[in-house]
Amino acid sequence: MDTIKNTANYVSDKVQGAGHGASKEANKQTAKDSDAPVGSRIKSAGNAVSDKAKESKSDTSAEANKQAATH
User: Fold this and answer.
1) What is the value of pTM for the model shown?
2) DSSP string of 27-45?
3) pLDDT tens for residues 56-68?
4) Measured between alpha carbons, how far is 46 from 54 in angstroms, rounded to an integer?
5) How far is CA 58 from CA 4, 47, 50, 55, in A?
6) Nearest 10 degrees: CA dihedral of 23, 28, 30, 34?
7) Angle at which helices 38-70 and 2-32 pack, to 10 degrees?
8) Helix (H, G, I), strand (E, B), or coil: what is residue 1?
């Protein structure tokens, strides 16, 4: 039963990580956009950093769940 739970958590973490990765990339593009207002660029840069941290956390959790499911 734990294997099923760990597998489901792995999939969930991978999906969340992918979502954070996509958000990070969108925020990076906004931060680089010289036509965007300075405030928006600064906010997007901060959001990109936050998304990267969340992406890394999800990827780490996914790897832990993958290892737990295989053992």
Assistant:
1) 0.87
2) HHHHHH-TTS-HHHHHHHH
3) 999 999 999 999 9
4) 13
5) 18, 16, 12, 5
6) 180
7) 160
8) coil
- CA 3 to centroid of chain Cα atoms: 24
CA atoms within 13 A on the CB side of 20: 18
Length of the chain as a residue count: 71
Q: For residue range 34-54, what is the model confidence (pLDDT) as tens digits?
A: 999 999 999 999 999 999 999
Distance of alpha carbon 41 from alpha carbon 13, whole angstroms:
28
Question: Are 65 and 10 contacting, i.e. CB atoms less than 8 angstroms apart?
Answer: yes
Q: What share of the chain is helix, strand, coil (3-state, %, to 5)?
A: 90, 0, 10
